[in-house]
Specification:
The protein is of the alpha/beta class. It is built from 47 helices and twelve strands. Among the domains are: about 150 residues, 3-Layer(aba) Sandwich (Rossmann fold), CATH 3.40.50; about 60 residues, no CATH class; about 120 residues; about 120 residues, Serine Threonine Protein Phosphatase 5, Tetratricopeptide repeat (Alpha Horseshoe); about 70 residues, Winged helix-like DNA-binding domain superfamily/Winged helix DNA-binding domain (Arc Repressor Mutant, subunit A). The strands form four sheets. A five-stranded parallel beta sheet has the order 2-3-4-1-5, with helices on both faces. It is flat and about 115 Å long. This is Transcriptional regulator.
């Protein structure tokens, strides 16, 4: 896994004309031995004579101990050490019998000196090479060192597995896909070390926190180190002197620690020793040199083995140290608060509230919850309760949040404090508990406020609530009123601007929506402290715009920015779940059905208990299943979407209803899907959601309805066609996509293969491979129907576009692709491989005449005239691409 380049390098080193060997170095467990074994085992035995030397601590104490697997037990008597070496080389040559000698040495740093000398001698011998592994940080025998200086072997450092390969290895171990946060967490803990990763998986498999949901493995529990894993790490840590252990413990509880600060409490020599042994490492951070642990699991073991009393004393000591130098960095307040909390010395509620606010601004929900609760317990009063309730709301615990708010209901003196209480309570009851009456309640209470800033805060929340329940005109009026009030706080103004940006996106005013979001982001440094959850409104507005505009590059940037990383790391599920939905959407339009399905399942798992985006996640799962032709899963996901979709998020209805149409279509009810989409178009037109309308109209084009009538009757008694309506909307909705959708619709309505291919090219320029393949498939269908001489080139173009996709089975592709019977497919596959009618007949137990009749029907269905065109045509049949490609 993830070692293809290194494996190829090993093969080149053995089989190349230069004939140099290669040694791989790296940490224990990084995969050196497995790589060596895999590479050598593939060498053909008739060309290479492989001799294995597996060095160990046991054999290192015996002369020629490493050769017990290569040489006979009895050695010639009376030979000098040099004579024995010569005898050993000659014996290897005799055993090789003219084949090339390959000496494979695992853990070469443990070789005894005579065996090391033999390895060096073999490396100098013609028709021989040496391959092996060495562990980092170990002393190696001088003869092996000379292999580099004499330029006899290559040297390659084996690096940790990158995140993608770590996720793949996890999926292989667990026999199923793993959600992104779990893969990232285990990947970081193992630092890309396959052995540690395996041990970690075994450790978490013994807990109940590793669960499989929607076909995806998720780990949410605390790491319980298995004895085997603890022993493995203990071997690496070894016996530490008291001074070095103190260094490692301080770093384990306090990393990153400034080197200068660390040196004030420990001996510099102990720090140097810890660094030499790989226990700690130095990292440049701005103008400071920070100290971190050499491996994340070192901290897990050291912290587990440290007695509770010593742990609390170390944490209190760290807090005092940082307080003593003045908490110079912004994050120092949070670190001191955590150390105080863990050591039982936290007594200042103001510090705890400030630290909880910082943690929440970083979207670290678990830490923010702990700190805010500690602040409330320490007498933090209303401020602590308000913050804790807000955090609990976004930790998906609305009932608990409401209970916390009720404890300070009588402590809301002053309108500024009352407005905060009203808005947090409104969030909890509306989005957390789906109580639609909240909107009227918050509107009524807002009119009772006199303070203009307090009133603006309540109005901003009312605005976005009304937008979410589809009262768009009122939402717009309220949001504009907030922006017109100079007294409104920055957070209130930017929340109102988010409501406007979202509304502009669904209306097709994409440029204005982008400008509004940019204005909000420009003020993030101001509002994030007061209202960090405003980022969700920003992402919803921005994500809606990017999805409607088909801006896949923009979606890629959004799901890879800082907020995405913070949300994933901090268990901010609403944020990471929504971004995962967008990732699935982008993959679907690219035709990458595997990626789309995995991301959709991940979103469903993350948002399983959410009242906000759970329905949207299930709708995207239905779309991904429909893309793959999986009618059963699509229907199942759509049922889940209906059960979990909250009425408080009615603004998301276009996405759910598009998924419903896709589910109907994949289930074979094309008339039902068409009827449903027509009804959805009418609803969107009535709501003024022109941006969504373009996408739904194009769904109708994909179902062959480009020339169908839509919309109200004109003055002359006629109705526009879908192609005409899309052309009209392309002048109203911003962006590159609407004109392209309109061009595709006109080409489909006119039955023009040339224009359909032109539209396909346009879709590919935007990365929309699925839509490009569908447009090309429609063109091929027309050319095939007309038996055009251009069919061969056209099928090649379609084959290329389908090659950019995974498994895709959309109605547009199915209707444009002829269906072969099982027997016809068998004949076609053999014919595509160049087999003659006689051979095909023999293999399928048919008469030659029957085979020829089959071939004529196949050629007629596919619009080809001979075997030369058959191979390209077969590539266009979904589900048979891989077989035909051979």
């Amino acid at each position: 896994m993830g070692r293809r380049a290194e494996l190829d390098r090993l093969h080149r080193a053995v089989t190349g004309t230069l004939g140099r060997g290669i040694f791989f170095t790296g940490n224990a467990g990084i995969g050196k031995s497995r790589l060596l074994r895999e590479g050598v085992d593939t060498l053909p035995g008739d060309q290479y004579a492989v001799g294995w030397i597996a060095a160990s601590a046991t054999t290192a104490a015996m002369p020629f101990g490493g050769l017990v697997q290569v040489l006979p037990v009895e050695h010639p008597q009376g030979l000098s050490p040099a004579g024995i070496l010569r005898w050993a080389v000659d014996l290897l040559q005799q055993q090789a019998a003219g084949r090339r000698i390959v000496l494979a040495v695992d853990d070469a740093h443990l070789l005894d000196p005579p065996t090391a000398a033999l390895v060096h001698l073999v490396a100098r011998t013609e028709n021989a090479c040496v391959v092996g592994t060495l562990r980092d940080g170990e002393q190696m025998p001088l003869p092996l060192r000379a292999l580099w200086t004499d330029d006899l072997v290559e040297h390659a450092e084996l690096s940790p597995l990158p995140p993608t390969d770590t996720a793949g290895l996890l999926a292989a171990i667990l026999k199923g896909p793993v959600d992104g946060r779990t893969a990232d967490r285990l990947g970081k803990l193992s630092a890309g070390n396959p052995l540690l990763l395996r041990e970690l998986v075994h450790a978490v498999q013994n807990s109940e926190e590793l669960t499989e949901r929607f076909g995806l493995w998720t780990w949410t529990g605390r790491l319980e180190l298995a004895p085997s894993l603890t022993e493995l790490i203990d071997i690496r840590i070894g016996q530490l002197s008291p001074g070095v252990r103190t260094v490692v413990e301080l770093v384990a509880f306090g990393e990153p620690l400034g080197l200068r600060l660390l040196n004030t409490v420990v001996e510099e020599a102990d720090v140097e020793t810890a660094e030499e042994r790989g226990m700690i490492t130095m990292v440049n951070s701005d103008r400071r040199l920070d100290v971190r642990l050499g491996h994340p699991l070192y901290g897990e073991v050291v912290r587990r083995q440290c007695p509770v009393s010593r742990t609390r004393r170390l944490q209190a000591h760290l807090a005092e140290l940082l307080e003593g130098v003045g908490k110079r960095r912004r994050e120092d307040l949070l670190r001191v608060a955590v150390w105080r909390l863990e050591s039982g010395t936290a007594q200042d509620p103001a510090m705890l509230i400030a630290a909880a606010g910082q943690a929440f601004a970083r979207y670290d929900v678990p830490l923010a919850t702990r700190l805010a609760r500690a602040a409330l317990d320490a007498g933090g009063g209303f401020d602590a309760a308000e913050l804790l309730a807000t955090i609990l709301m976004f930790a998906d615990r609305p009932a608990e949040a409401l209970g916390v708010l009720d404890t300070v209901a009588t402590d809301t003196g002053g309108e500024e404090r009352l407005s905060r209480w009203l808005t947090v309570r409104g969030m909890v009851t509306y989005w957390g508990l789906s109580q639609e009456s909240t909107v009227e309640e918050i509107a009524r209470r807002g009119t009772e406020l006199i303070d203009l800033a307090a009133q603006a805060r309540v109005r901003a929340f009312e605005s976005i609530m009304r937008l979410h329940r589809l009262d768009a005109p009122t939402a717009l009026r309220l949001a504009q009123g907030v922006l017109d009030r100079p007294a409104a706080s920055v957070a209130a103004r930017e929340l109102a601007r988010c409501a406007i940006a979202h509304l502009q996106a669904v209306q097709g005013q994409l440029r204005r929506s982008a400008m509004a979001v940019d204005l909000v982001q420009a003020k993030a440094g101001t509002w994030r402290t007061d209202m960090p959850y405003l980022q969700l409104a920003v992402e919803l507005a921005r994500g809606t715009r990017l999805a409607i505009s088909g801006d896949l590059t923009g979606i890629d940037s959004l799901v890879a920015d800082e907020f995405a990383d913070l949300a994933d790391a901090g268990d901010f599920r609403l944020g990471s779940g929504y971004l995962t939905i967008l990732r699935a959407y982008a993959a679907r339009l690219r035709g990458r059905s595997d990626t789309a399905m995995q991301a959709a399942l991940g979103a469903c798992a993350i948002l399983a208990t959410s009242r906000v985006y759970a329905g949207l996640a299930q709708a995207e799962r239905a779309q991904a299943a429909a893309l793959r032709g999986d009618a059963r899963q699509a229907a199942e996901a759509m049922t889940e979407a209906d059960n979990s979709h909250a009425r408080s998020m009615a603004v998301l209805y276009p996405w759910l209803e598009q998924a419903r149409a896709a589910t109907l279509a994949v289930g074979g009810d094309l008339p039902g899907a068409v009827t449903h989409l027509h009804g959805l178009v009418e609803r969107l037109r009535a709501d003024g959601f022109a941006g969504h309308e373009t996408l739904v109209l194009h769904d109708l084009v994909r179902l062959g309805q480009a020339a169908a009538p839509t919309g109200p009757t004109c003055s002359d008694g006629s109705r526009r066609t879908i192609a005409q309506r899309l052309t009209e909307l392309s002048e109203q909705v911003d962006g590159e996509l609407p004109p392209l959708l309109a061009r595709h619709a006109r080409a489909a309505a006119d039955g023009s293969p040339e224009q359909l291919f032109s539209a396909a090219d346009g879709f590919m320029e935007l990365g929309l491979a699925l839509l490009a393949a569908e447009a090309a498939a429609a063109a091929v269908h027309l050319l095939r129907r007309d038996r055009s001489p251009d069919i061969a080139a056209a099928t090649e173009r379609l084959a290329f576009l389908l090659g950019c996709c995974d498994v895709v089975h959309t109605p547009a592709l199915r209707t444009a692709t002829p269906t072969l019977t099982d027997r016809e497919w068998q004949v076609a596959r053999l014919a595509a491989h160049g087999e003659t009618s006689r051979i095909i007949a023999e293999q399928l137990f048919l008469s030659a005449r029957t085979v020829e009749n089959h071939l004529q029907r196949i050629y007629s269905k596919l619009g080809v005239t001979g075997r030369a065109e058959l191979r390209a045509a077969l590539r266009t049949i979904p589900g048979h691409d891989d077989t035909a490609a051979t």
